[in-house]
Design a protein that fits this description.
The protein is mainly alpha-helical. It has helices spanning 2-19, 42-73. The N and C termini lie far apart (72 Å).
Length: 74
């Protein structure tokens, strides 16, 4: 019987914790405001995104090339 008595408060604590949500920022859901950055300069944003994506995608290839070149010299 003691298992049933202990289960109810534990279940209530889980439900209470799940209901509480903490939001750190609020963005209006209107046109041109769906991302938390300013898109006044679309070319600048496209250039920054292109550089970011290129560096992230190319880094493993550069690292493998560097390791192969290092192994050839040894």
């Amino acid at each position: 019987m003691s298992m049933l008595v202990r289960a109810a408060p534990l279940r209530a604590a889980r439900v209470a914790a799940a209901r509480q949500q903490v939001r750190f920022a609020h963005f209006e859901n209107v046109v041109d405001k769906t991302i938390p950055t300013s898109v006044n300069n679309k070319f600048g944003l496209a250039a920054k995104m292109g550089i970011y994506i290129t560096c992230g995608f190319g880094l493993p290839f550069f690292a493998s090339w560097y390791q192969i070149q290092k192994a050839k010299g040894a």
